[in-house]
Amino acid sequence: MPKRQNPKYLLLGKIERPHGIRGELRISLLTAYPERLKELEHVYLGADPNRPNATRYTIDTVRFHKGAALIKFEEAPTRNEAELLRGQMVMIDLAHAVPLEEDEVYLYQLIGLKVQTEDGAELGVLRDVLETGANDVYILDSPQYGELLIPAHEETLIDVDLEAETVTMRLPEGLLPD
Questions:
Q1: What is the rounded average pLDDT of the residues 119-130?
Q2: 3-state DSSP call for residue 19?
Q3: Fold observed for domain 107-169
Q4: DSSP letters along 59-108, please?
Q5: Is the pLDDT of residue 1 over 70?
Q6: Per CATH, domain 9-95 is 2.60.200.20
Q7: Where is the RimM N-terminal domain (predicted)?
C-alpha cells in the first residue's frame, strides 16, 4: 500500500445541524485541541480533507455547549443558510494546524507505515486508525494474518519512526493466532 500524501486539510469537526435561529451550527469535534477554534479567523468547509476544493468560511463566533462547538460563520448569518452546510467537514489548512510536541504525530502520518514487533518481526502495513475514545486501534493489512486490530496505548506502542517508516509495537498476549 503506498503511503498517503499529506492531506491539504486537517479535520476539526463535522457540522451536525443548525442550532437556534441565528445561523449557529452545532459541530461534533474531531480535534484534540477544540479550544483552538476560538483563536481561528477562518476554517474550510468541504466533504473530504484530501480534496483541494474546500470553501473558506470566516468565523463570526465560537462557543462550546454540551461537548460540541457552536460556530457562526459570516457567510451564513441565518438558519436557512446554515442549514445548507449540514454534513460538511470543518477543516484547517496544514499551515495553521497546532504545532505538535516532539513525540507527537498526526494520525494521517501513520497510514502506510510498516508495523513490527519489538523483536523486529513484520506484522503488516497500517491501513487506518480507529479512534475509540479509550485508545486508538490500529488496523493493519497483514500478509500472514489478514486484517489485524491492535490497540494503541502506552503499553503497546513502543516507537513511531517516521524516517524509517515503521511503528514498533508490543502485542498483547493472545492477539495473534497460533
A1: 91
A2: strand
A3: SH3 type barrels. (2.30.30)
A4: EEEEEEETTEEEEEETT--SHHHHHTTTTPEEEEEGGGSPPPPTT---GG
A5: no
A6: no
A7: 12-93
Cα Dmax for the chain: 60
Look-up: residue for cell 503506498? 2
Distance, CA of 80 to chain centre? 29
Using CA atoms, how far residue 80 sits from 35, 56, 68, 75, 76, in Å, is: 27, 19, 21, 12, 8
Cα(36)–Cα(90) distance, integer angstroms: 13
Please give the Cα distance from 105 to 92 (Å, whole number): 16
Residue 85 or 173, more confident: 85
List all residues 6 or more positions away from 178 whose beta carbon is below 8 Å from its beta carbon: none
DSSP state for residue 8 in the 8-state scheme: S
pLDDT tens, position by position, 23-58: 999 999 988 888 989 999 999 999 987 787 899 999
How do the domains of the chain map onto residue ranges?
9-95, 107-169
Instruction: Give the span between the Cα atoms of 71 and 27, in whole angstroms.
Output: 7
pLDDT score of 154 more than 80: yes
